[in-house]
Each structure stands twice: as C-alpha cells, then as structure tokens.
C-alpha cells in the first residue's frame, strides 16, 4: 500500500474532495475476529452462531504532503440511527518491535490506534499492549471527517507525520505496517466483536 | 475469591414499601448527570414485573457453570425519570390543565405495578421485594467484562466498576441476571450499587440499611458467628438468596414472608398460607419450606414466653445490632477525617432556594458546588 505525496493535504481532509479520484485505491480484505479469541466466556457464548464482522473489504487510499498524512477509507456498513453502539473505524500502526495485530500488541511491542466513531467528531488516540488492554494513547492532533453516502461510509482520518515515544512513526520515504478494524454498531458490535484486517499490510510513504 | 464477604439480609416480613432506602441511595450516589433513571436500590411489589420490567426473563447468569447470553435493559425497561408540568399546572393560569408526566407520553415507571400483587379476593396478596446489586461470589458481570474493569474487593467482596477502565461495552449489563447494572449515557460508562464502600471502609453501614424505618436490613460479614448475617443464613437457615439458580452466588439474602391463612369458599381459614408457598419457592428456592417452618416454630415459642434467639434478632430491638461491625455514625466517621483546605471557609449564604438538579461529575466531587 502506497501513500502518495501531494502538494497539500488540507483539501483532501474532506472525503468528498475530487482530489481523491486521482489517488490509487487499494482493497483491504477484512474478516470477523475469531470467536475463540474473544477474551471472556460470556462474549464467546453470547456471540456463538451470531453473525458479526460482516464488512469484507475496505477501500483505502492515503496521501501526505511532508507534514500531514491522511487516509480515506470507505466501506459498506451504515447503521440505522438510534442504536446503542456507534459505527466505528480504527487504524492500527506498530509503535516498535513486531506486534501481532490479532493479539493487539504486546508489552514490548505496542500498537497505536486512531479510532473514529460515528457519534463523535474527535479521533481517539489509543495504545494497546494486548487484548483488552487499550488505554489512552499519546497526545496527537488528529482530525476526522466522515460522510455516509447511502449505505457506505467515507471517512478521512489525518495526523501529522513523524513519531516519537508511543506515537507510531510515519516517515516520508519509509515503510511501516498498517492494519484496520471496523465495527457495525447497529449489529451491537463493540470491543473485540468487529471485522479486522488479518495481518499488517505494508505501507510505503513516498519520499 | 475474597478473603471476607460483606452481605445483607432483608426481612421481607417487615418491609413496608416506603422506598426510604431508594431515596437514601438516590440522594447519596446517583445525582450526577446521566444518572437520572438510576435507582441502585429498588423496591417492587411481588408478584410483579419488577425493575427493570420483566428482568427475570432477560437472561444472563450461569447454567451448569456456563455463562448464558442475556439482554441489555433499556432506560424504558428500567423506567424513566419523568418530567412533570408543575410550572404549567401551578402558575400557568389555565384552569383546565392537569398534571402530566412527560407530556402524557410517559412509559412505565420503575415501580409501575406497585401494590397490585396477585391472587383473587379474598385471597389477594402481595409483599415488597427490595433489591440492590448482590455483590455475588461468582459475579457474571465481572466475568463478562473484556476490559477487566470490574473487580471484587479482596477484603470484603464488594463488586465495583472502575469507570476509568470501563468503555461502555455493556457486556456486564447483559450478563448480570439481576439486571442491576445501569448505563450512564452522559459519561458513557456502566454504573451500579457500590455497597456504600466508602462508608463500610469507615465502619458505617450502608445508607439503605441505616435509613430503613422498617428495620428490614441487616449488614455484616457472611462468616462472622457474632454478627447477624451468619446467624440468619447459616445457623437458622431462614435467609435465602433470590434466584440462586442464576448461578452467581448472591450475597443478599431474604427472610421469606409469612402470610395469614388462605380463606376457603365458605370464608373459613385453611391450612394454606395466603402467599402461595410455590411462588416463594420460585423466587427463593426449596429452602423456603424449612425457613417458613422455622419462623413459625420460633414465633410460637416466643408467644409461649420462651426465649428465641431468632425472634430476638428479627425483631431488632437494638437497632445498631443489625449492622454487625458497621455501627459507627456517619458523622463520627467524618469527624476523624481532616476537612479539606478548600472547604474550611464558611459557605456563602444561599441566595435562593436550590432546585433539584443533577450535577456534572466535577460539581459532584465538590459536594454539588459549582
Ligand atoms: S448482582 Fe449482577 S451486577 Fe451485582 S455482582 Fe451479581 S452479577 Fe454483578
Ligand atoms: S426503607 Fe426499609 S421498609 Fe422502606 S422500602 Fe426500603 S427496605 Fe422496605
């Protein structure tokens, strides 16, 4: 997966901006998180035989301008209003070491998540070192804009390039890994009940 | 498992359904925004739908040790805090207007079927069932939470939700078979009865038990042979858990209610009690038979002028004896703590009569001052 260099990211923070049409889109395959990996017997028992994580693919494109990085994701899964849990999208980036995405990282290999949810205008920065461990992540100026077009979400999440401490590095001319998770709130999806990209995809940022 | 367990025994023969316990809890703990609908303590009429309505068919708990799926009760299931048109009625200047809850579009309240009960005249019957979180020994809520946000205190078995860890997933709400967990939509966390742990830690019993005018609620350690709980539960076996079949090992126990005899068609008393024993068994299990027998036997002894430890305990002549090691007055417990710097100045006189309102979390921490 490639992050194209553009002159200015600012107009592209709007998911409807025509500038996105020229940015190559890649499909990321998603699957439901395995039931056996759900952390408590209650969750395993109550979701057995119930469908979840039905989003099978995510259309992803990304750009940077040397300062800001923006990713546009689009998928089918707009929940009706008035449900208990919001639709949501999370982008995972490894902070250091070689974390296993499906295990949500480890003590010596944390994962940094940027999480958008449909009922909030802010992006949450979270750090995880294992399943059920996610906590508030490093302070970072992020933005998210979302629009629902029919049953498709179009969401742009942006953050500055760079990275230090627990902030996952995103550096022009370098490669890293990227992973995704999608929750369909209308189907009561929250926590580990979600669709996720099975493993890291390689993310290469143009120099 | 916790080293010790605090527990409560409620004598259903004495509950008058006054809801003082409910109000004591409400004013002490659930006055933050998003808590309007929360009643960590509820008192319902039995037979009845309870709070939340129909909670007994909402699932959760364990069967043969296996966690069972459950439902999340909605705010409507719990019963909303209604808004009334008092302004309009008292000061609106219109003669025809009458008092209406939520503009007449209200749903059911938390105590909707109060005093309806069951049975046909002349054998109609009811009793009150107060409920709090049972601070279970095998808490379904705790085991369901993927965030490890719920813990059971090692020293006293009180089950608590860590609001900093909670992410509002509400698996606990589904898993608790007693439906004693509420969701705060403003703070986006689950909240529930805390067994007044800050009071218990200071040797003061819970607000619901201390305020109860019926002397219904006994508090103490489950294993304390000197305290009231052990005597009711283990020694005399007259206090039984509600729905033990849910498999969570609750630590709130009930002394089942005795009732006057059923009347036959000719109007003569029969051998059967007015409240059907099978109904009590459906709530408190088979132990009801022996518990009722013991209560009757001990009552007869008392009538004959013989001594009965059980009756003496149940009568609760000495109010403080009901609370085992938690007999301290809240004021005395407070005296032992230094008054925080920012609260040492005299308070500014109140300019106007304060209205009833719910505080933000920050205001609440400052004792409700902005
Ligand atoms: S009554 Fe429900 S909320 Fe309370 S400890 Fe038991 S399972 Fe948890
Ligand atoms: S305060 Fe006591 S008597 Fe009144 S409803 Fe509560 S438990 Fe029953």
TrEMBL record, chain A:
Protein name: Uncharacterized protein
Annotated source species: Aromatoleum petrolei
From TrEMBL, chain B:
Region described as Disordered: 326-370
Record-linked CDD domains: EBDH_beta
Source species, domain of life: Bacteria
Protein name from the UniProt record: Respiratory nitrate reductase subunit beta
Alphabetical list of PROSITE patterns matching this protein: 4FE4S_FER_2
Cofactor: [3Fe-4S] cluster; [4Fe-4S] cluster
Any Pfam family: Fer4_11
Organism: Aromatoleum petrolei
């Amino acid at each position: 997966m490639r992050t194209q260099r553009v002159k200015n990211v600012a107009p592209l923070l709007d998911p409807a901006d025509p500038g996105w049409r020229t940015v190559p889109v890649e499909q990321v395959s998603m699957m439901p998180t395995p039931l056996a990996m759900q952390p408590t017997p209650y969750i395993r028992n109550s979701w057995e035989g119930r469908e979840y994580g039905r989003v099978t693919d995510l259309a992803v494109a990304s750009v940077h301008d040397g300062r800001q990085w923006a990713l546009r994701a689009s998928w089918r899964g707009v929940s009706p209003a008035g449900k208990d849990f919001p639709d949501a999208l999370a982008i995972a980036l490894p902070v250091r070491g070689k974390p296993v995405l499906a295990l949500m990282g480890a003590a010596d290999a944390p994962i940094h998540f940027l999480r958008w949810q449909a009922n909030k205008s802010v992006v949450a920065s979270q750090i995880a070192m294992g399943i059920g461990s996610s906590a508030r992540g490093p302070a970072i100026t992020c933005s998210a804009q979302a629009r629902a077009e029919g049953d498709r979400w179009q969401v742009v999440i942006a953050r500055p390039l760079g990275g230090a401490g627990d902030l996952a590095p995103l550096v022009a001319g370098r490669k890293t890994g990227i992973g995704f998770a999608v929750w369909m709130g209308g189907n009561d999806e929250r926590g580990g009940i979600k669709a996720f990209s099975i493993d890291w995809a390689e993310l290469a940022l143009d120099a | 498992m916790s080293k010790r367990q605090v527990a409560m025994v409620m004598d259903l023969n004495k509950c008058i359904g006054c809801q003082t316990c409910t109000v004591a809890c409400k004013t002490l703990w659930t006055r933050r925004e998003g808590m309007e609908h929360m009643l960590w303590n509820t008192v319902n009429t039995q037979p009845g739908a309870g709070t939340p309505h129909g909670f007994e068919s909402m699932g959760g708990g364990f069967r043969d040790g296996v966690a069972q799926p459950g439902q999340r009760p909605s705010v409507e299931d719990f019963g909303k805090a209604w808004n009334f048109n008092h302004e309009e009625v008292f000061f609106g200047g219109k003669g025809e207007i009458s008092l209406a809850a939520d503009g007449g579009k209200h749903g059911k309240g938390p105590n909707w079927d109060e005093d309806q009960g069951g049975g046909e005249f002349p054998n109609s019957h009811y009793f009150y069932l107060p409920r709090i979180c049972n601070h279970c020994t095998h808490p379904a809520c705790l085991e369901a939470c993927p965030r490890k946000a719920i813990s059971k205190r090692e020293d006293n078995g009180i089950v608590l939700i860590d609001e900093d860890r909670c992410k509002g997933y509400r698996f606990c709400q589904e898993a608790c078979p007693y439906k004693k967990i509420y969701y705060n939509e403003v703070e986006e966390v689950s909240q529930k009865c805390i067994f007044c742990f800050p009071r218990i830690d200071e040797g003061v019993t819970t607000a619901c038990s201390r305020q109860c005018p019926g002397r219904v609620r006994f508090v103490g350690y489950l294993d304390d042979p000197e305290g009231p709980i052990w005597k009711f539960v283990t020694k005399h076996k007259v206090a039984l858990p509600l729905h033990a079949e849910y498999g969570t090992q609750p630590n709130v126990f009930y002394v089942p209610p005795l009732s006057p005899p059923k009347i036959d068609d000719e109007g003569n008393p029969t051998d059967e009690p007015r409240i059907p024993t099978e109904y009590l068994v459906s709530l408190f299990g088979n132990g009801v038979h022996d518990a009722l027998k013991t209560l009757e036997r001990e009552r007869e002894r008392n009538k004959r002028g013989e001594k009965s430890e059980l009756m003496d305990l149940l009568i609760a002549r000495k109010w403080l004896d009901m609370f085992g090691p938690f007999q301290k007055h809240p004021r005395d417990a407070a005296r032992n703590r230094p008054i925080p710097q920012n609260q040492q100045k005299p308070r500014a006189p109140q300019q106007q009569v304060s209205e009833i309102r719910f505080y933000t979390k920050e205001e609440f921490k400052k004792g409700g001052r902005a």
